[in-house]
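Deliverable D4.2, example record:
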Amino acid sequence: MPLEKAHIKNFRNIEEALLTFDKRFNLVIGKNRSGKTSLIEALYLLFSYRSFRTQNLQETIAQHASQNFVQGVFINTEGERIKARVERLRNNSSSIFTCNNNEITKLSSWVRQAPTMLVNSDIHQLISGSPQGRRRLLDWGVFHVEPLFEVSWKTFSRLLRQRNALLKRSPKKEVIATWDELFVEAAEEVTRYREMHIAKYTPVICELGKRVLGDEQIKLTYQRGWPEGVSLKEILSLAVERDTKIKNTEYGPHRADLSISVGKGSSRYFSSRGEQKLLGYVLSAAQTILLNQEKNLQCIILCDDLESELDEKSSRLLVEMLATLPHQTIVTSINGAYNLYKKTDPHVFHVKHGEFSHNPT
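Output generated by the structure prediction step:
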């Protein structure tokens, strides 16, 4: 669901901005600390009701202001305009989040309407960082493509919390074993959805990877969160004493990971930082392509500081890849270098000290 217009007020260093976006490719150019990342953060907040920079949304309110808001007009698949707004008051610990002037009470319903992929300058950590980031990306795709996954995940998460709470009371093994039956059932359902998604996801990654990384073969291996060759029920039984001692559940889909290799080696250890960024972009973009193929949905892709730590060739490959995606893209750049973006015919904004201007050329 593309974003047509945005109205942002008192959001960090953006005093007020009224912006009209192109439905395909948008480029925001400005120096460091000019307001580029604040724009991406504000839009991401509108799409997902969260910030990627802080857990305390009070920090997003400009110092001189008592409140801020981000408002957007979207166009849905029927061509109807939908207005969404997030408003935050300094003296209130919660935000007001509305869609067409009605309060949004179920965030997942809104997120499904406006699927958004954020790619910022630390995208390399998707490859080199902890499994949590890779699980988050995987579950983004499963959530949007498999509608019943949300229920399965919530059920598993609830049972995991309950099992961990039980472990803190050092119960008898027989008591834990009773809980484990439900836990295993939910865990295996989550795993099944993930594995179904990976089977669809992998060919898209490989095809997209050829355009950006060349002929090196990309391989994904799903590590489900417990050892191969043994059932989750068996490993939980074997690990019950250790779990009781550490008061935490060591095995399950909450420990899953995606092992990613390029050519003959693990991308985590053998790729340069620039190559890891390219691969991170490929993994993220592939999810949006699969969503379009499976659900015919248009995503919004937010790319902050795309050229950071990349050479001209790599940056050009990324821009060309993004320009071919069937989605709306909003990219920030320090100076629009290398004439990278000319072929995309971008809708260009310049930002300076939080003030935006549109440059039609």
